User: Fold these one by one.
Assistant:
Number 1:
Amino acid sequence: MEKIINRIKELTEILKKANYEYYNMDNPSITDQEYDKYLRELIKLEEKYPEYVDPNSPTKRVGGEAIDKFVKVSHKIPMISLSNVFNEEEINEFATRIKNAGFNPEYVCELKIDGLSVSLHYEHGKLVYAATRGDGVIGEDITHNVKTIKTIPLDLKRDIDIEVRGEIYMNKATLELLNRERELNGETKLQNVRNAAAGSIRQLDPKIAAKRHLDVWIYHLPNPEDYGIKTHFEALEFMESLGFKVNDSSRLVKDEKGILDFINDYTKKRNTLAYEIDGVVIKVNDIETQQILGNTNKYPRWATAYKFPAEEVLTKLIDIKFTVGRTGQVTPNAVLEPVLVAGSTIRKATLHNEDYCKEKDLRIGDIVSIRKAGDVIPEVVESLKERRNGNEKEFQMIYECPICGSSLIKKGNVDYFCINDNCPKKNIEGLIHFASRNAMNIDGMGDEIIEDFYNEGFIKNTDDFYKLSDYKDQIIELEGYGLKKINNILNSIEISKNNSVERLIFGLGISGIGIKNAKLLASRYKNIYALKNATYEELTAIRDIGDILAHNIVEYFSNIENVNLINNLENYGINMNYLGKEIKENDIFTNKKFVITGTISFMGRNEIKALIESYGGVETTSVSKNTDVVIVGDSPGSKYEKAMSLGIEIWNEDKFKEIINNL
């Protein structure tokens, strides 16, 4: 429990410091992504252990405190901030909570501008004062600088008393020009548009603020009912009619699908906008529903902000651990503080090899940037050396197997291997791979069960799976293994004998051969013995095989122990033939790589994949310069945008339907 208490205290201090730097100094030392990560962790801990919550916890505050050089202003209606959601699941949870409260509302989607919140107060249609959010209750009077922003009206089109709220921001081009000037003058560049806008609005001299060419979007009317307004969308139109600048991208949608469509649209358009956005704000449209749903002590229940997935995020490198793969290769792996990257929580990442760690000068304790390579595999990009405190530990390569203690051998220029054929971890990993879903698919044979059976001596080699029934009586005596469980496992082993041979090819663990290449080889050679007799020259002529894989295949089948294994497996009744559909030659699909993104209304993803493969094409998960075609359905993701940028051929739903109708 002491560990929990200390973590709550640590997170509280980190966030308090970050709030002060962000809101008061305009000079944050951590990124927005890091702040969000720490805040979410603290919220979860406080919910689980409410007895340890700090009364002044950052989870109970909105922003920073008003700084002394400006007059403090009290907000009659608090300027509370929004909760955050980061993926489709959390958006659906937000909508479900509202439905569970008895509502089925329309929503307004707005762009989340990366700037500085402002409250504008008018009496008889004339600007009286402007204030920052501050801590949500007390802000700072910034009227003298706000008056320099040309898009903020000093006089409205009606004689009216009103408060409106919006976001002061700086255009991308303005920041670029400003930084160019600062560079010429030997001044430090401004980090981003948000900091530039905040720093500009807090200048004591309004002439400096005027030179920064700030802008504003108005997006909120705190008391719409006082003006007879029934919906948020009406409020936007009303504020625009008074002369305020309202973003015309806002969209009224009927449900979660409409929300996701809006997010997808602006995920694609984001980089084309003149200003920075970091997400989408989602609000219940009906004002009465908003009031019934109400607020928590920090967030409205009727609104939330979707944050765009960070392409590259920061987290802490807690440790570096070494693993042994089925080929014996020893790999350093990063153990990370959990962090969201592109919608997924990442806790570890491969560090590839010794050279990779040394070239990047990675140290335990470093703050590191993480991204998803090919939108799938997390990788460590770099360490932030300027954030080191002297307690970091330098990377040290190991030279003995972390499992069996054997001396490691360096093969090639970078990789270390355990060459002990009896290394338990190496053997266990090979057995786990053989039984895995994409290989022999032996249902019920999870990692821990295989490790148990290995340690008991029931399964030491690949063909031992098919002798497991000999140990049935002994297995039943083990804790946790009843008759039903062992019968299910033995039945799965029996079923695996009937697999098409590509599963066996993949399961054998030939270096570099994945399931797609295994299927390609199986469909071409029809059985494992034809593949065994394939020459290096034949193999290199196959697209996607190449020199290295051809060498690995030939080397595998030249090893007498591997040939004996295959013979043993055949004797146990394992199918050695290709059972898939015959490949039909077709110039549209054959030897081409396809990526599917979005939802195709008339065909499921697995059906599309099967169709592509039946004509000799390959379906892949990520877009690259080697992709031939991207098939785009409803609500496509970032893959569509990447395909456009690379000039890759795009098939929309209509074109795809036309192509398959003509096959």
Number 2:
Amino acid sequence: MKQLMLGNKAVARGLYEAGCCFASSYPGTPSTEVTEELAKYDEVYCEWAPNEKVAMEAAFGASLAGKRSFCAMKHVGLNVAADPLYTMSYTGINAGMVIVVADDAGMHSSQNEQDSRHHAIAAKLPMLEPSDSQEALEFTKLAFEISERFDTPVLLKMCTRVAHSQSVTEVSERTVPTKTYEKNISTYVMMPGNAKKRHPIVEERTRLLKEYAEHESINRVEMGKTSLGIITSSTSYQYVSEVFGDSVSILKIGMANPLPDQLILDFAKKVDRLVVVEELDPIMENHCKALGLKVQGKDLLPICGEFSQNLIAKALGKEPPKGYALEENLPLRPPVMCPGCPHRGLFYTLRKIGCTVLGDIGCYTLGAAAPLASMEMTLCMGASVSAIHGFNKMGAEKSEKNTVCVIGDSTFMHSGMTGLANIAYNQSHSTVIILDNSITGMTGHQQNPTTGLNIKGDPAGKIDLEALCRAMGFARVSVVDPYDLAACEEVIRRELQADEASVIISRRPCALLKYVKKNAPLRVNPDKCRGCTSCMKIGCPAISIRGKKAVVDTTLCIGCGVCTQMCRFGAFEGGTGEKDTAAPGAAASSGHAEEGKEKA
């Protein structure tokens, strides 16, 4: 049976058909939908883990138990999971284990353009790279076969375009192979004596995998005209095929690591000119050069950003296919916080106070954008909490009284806790603000350990952030409602002046959550509006200035009321006045602020 499938959905289908029984992932665009789609199959146990390292280790444990397992993450998530990844190369696996990593060339939703092939090479692990949804399904199933045949975890490298585009995919039935666990200390206990014996096994496995890459159809030659031969992979293969058709010969690489030698040498002999077309780093190009071949690649094509049909056609002197010569000077549409976003009031307050704000990874990173322009640093998951400690240690009292860090609830569970432990242990007077919007917002509303629900929306263990922070040694823990600007300002100013570390939890659920009640939209009374533009300082997309008067787009406004607190003339009217749209168990700001103050 054939279906039109998103690339990520096709991977999930491949996992299901291959008999995967366990999945643990951390959401990260563009990988998130793989696990979300897999969770729709009741035969497969699925979970969101606190971070990628935990997900990979849990999947390894499931493999050890004898069940085929899987974990998924985006490229920067693989950095977090690198510790277990590199050692799993030595231990090998029991039942098959597949690791999906999705790269984000073009940085559509990422802080860097990382090429995950480097991890595969350094860890000496096989990596498969599909170019469409059908291959995504097939390569996923093949990855399990390779995993068990060669006793190794297998990386499946997706990218934004393959993950988020659709193509026709043929599905089949599910089969569930299993293995039994057998105690084997020399294989699975990686103390130095055992690890030394495992390294030669890894090298022999790499040799065998290289032979496999030479002869299996996962790498294939498509001979056309021989004046130009192109070596390519992944989505670049689709672009090359669309631009050139059979006017060139193509060596399509499906196994990104290890790369074949003889197959490439034989292909090069058949063509007059050899070009490598690959996004980001020149890994295949350098491999060809190491084989002594004369090859072009990054001298023609960029090392940065995503490729396209137009880009490849222009670089290689070919007219783009009909329909692809699009105007590129389109108006920009920068991302903004949603109307009613709970983070907006908090960032406005931080800017008003004049704080130095060290930020983190999440939709709240938009606090760096105008007009809020509050956030001054974003590095990686959890870095805000770690960095404020070092910043304050070197800035002493002056910075401690004027610097905060912000981190989301999901990101805090991911990797903020260890930084908080460092503050408690090594005693900087740092002010940490946890932006608790009761969900993992940036990647599309996935649950996390603080929400009390699992990946299927069923009741799950729930971590109490206030109790956790106190247990970690923080006497000063306050909760504030970011819709209440006065309360936000009061609590932040108070905690900055404290001569000890403190945690402020800014709690208000994401305005896009289905259970959050929306107030009636506000409107502007033009007779009261003075055109002072104070309301524009919060950057709400529902508010604009027309004819020197503020105007509210009622199709966007959710009646959060933040703008009413900024207008000195009472021009904003309407709404229900209702403020408590918080998640169950989250009280309004003033009561919690006072409670935190009393307990401090």
Number 3:
Amino acid sequence: MLRNMFKKTYTTIDTKYKPQAKGGEEPSIPQGLWRKCNKCGQPIYVEDVVNNYYVCPKCGGYFRVHAYRRIEMLVDEGTFEEWNKEVPFSNPLNFPNYEKKVTAAREKTKLNEAIVIGKGMIEGNPAVVGVCDARFIMSSMGHVVGEKITEAVEQATREKLPVIIFACSGGARMQEGIVSLMQMAKTSAALKRHHEAGQLFISVFTDPTTGGVTASFAMLGDIILAEPHALIGFAGPRVIEQTIGQKLPEGFQRAEFLLEHGFIDKIVERKDQKRVIGQILYMHRNHDMVERKPEDGSRDMESGEGVTNQNASAPEKSDSRAARREKAEGGFFGRFSRSEKTDSASAKKHTKRGDKASEKMQKADDAGAKTAWDTVLLSRRTDRPVAMDYIDGLFDEFIEFHGDRYFKDDGAIVGGIAMFHGMPVTVIGQQKGRNTKDNIKRNFGMPSPDGYRKALRLMKQAETFGRPIICFVDTPGAYCGMDAEERGQGEAIARNLFEMSDLKVPVLSIVIGEAGSGGALAIAVANEVWMLENSTYSILSPEGFASILYKDSKKAPEAAKVMKITAADLKDLDIIERIVPEEEPASMDNLYRLVEYMDRAIIEFFETYLPMSGEALAEQRYERFRRM
């Protein structure tokens, strides 16, 4: 019924455009078949537009979507229950002709107000959904819109449900003046309580979203998504140009501009939104997580006892770990799937291999087989796997999130959420490039302040939703350019150390290549730190050390030896907990062996740390560094 209603809405022929046949004669076209794309101006079949999620099949331009049509595309059929559909009109400032304007908008759109809100299922996951409709006074936010959003968020908080709002607005509603302005604070306050209750808010920007909506609830998502090319900004382009008298650059205030500048997590095409949002909701259902209770540390990840799901039972809830692995395994894991009975023995065997690695490396050094400088060179090899290689090998359904919410998205830090044997985790990595072009994009793995702030944002998000954190460390050091200093490189690193020390979720950091100075430590304040056998971890590069102490950077090989920077050295110093053996120097050819070892070891790590309370985890982390 909804589909038929909206097909009818979109089949009104555009009278400004009539396709011309050859010779200038007008073809005979049945009324309602054609529509003109407002982006490329080309004629398109209405049916093609409908079937393509209201995206022009010729130029990819996005049509604005009516609220109920958006809900139909997003929410599982037959599950949507609308809330507060009919709200009486009021004119708080007695603004002239305001009632007539609202009445006209109601007659035109068949809506009561500029937002439709209710509860439904998305890919089987319950959520509260709100969708703004630009046809209703440009979806400006008056007191009714503010009240509908606030009531919905409050109800979602009570029912422990996530909230999703598709924003589209010209901003505050001028006819309501200061009353409209107050809705910015009211909706933000409701979302703050929702956040403090540990509940998820996903904000989705559509075209256009400006003014007071951008400066309130729309920018407060735990996860912020956007449609391609959507106009997003506080002051609209026309206002800016008229105010400063300057022509704005191409693409200014578009979704891609905001992604580059760190304000949104991800741009998602309309055809993928239901799948991606459903995936995010599923990862936030807290299934397969060990319930942490200080008085009971016996929760069992193997049997599933203590597993909680705050919304509904997930299919994986009662499965054994081996069954979950069999469902989730793909890529590397298909090569070495094992039965549940072998898991414990395998983990113990790998642990012993890791413990013996230090002895083996020390003997090799004594025999002159491999020097510390050799290890430095191995850690820097261009064919060595980078963070995303390990992320792809170890985890399923990785969704990368972007940006620090302040200035930009730093390519030297990657991060997001993923599944590990049926359990949601947050994954963060320092990312080097795989080639020269990629290295330039990634700044050769040297993070800026924006990268560290992005990492911390994702860590705090993980803490809010109870997800363990796994970090992959691989950097020659933090970027030391002038712009990094201007944006507070030292403060950004210090803030990470400060906040990571007290995170209430398990944190594991794995050094996979170089770990240089505070730039590495900024994502390595963990419950445990592991190193690959041919990786290094140092106060600064051997070249820098030699320049400072020996006044000669050519003495770097000598410096590497005295600095004690190899995995074996640091295991002996109790700086790290585990060595990941490299039977051969790490490469893409043998990555699956490293992934196999890490997989078993991470399971063991979780079995140790997931049953601990948040306070106990923070205390263990504090004591770990306190003894150094």
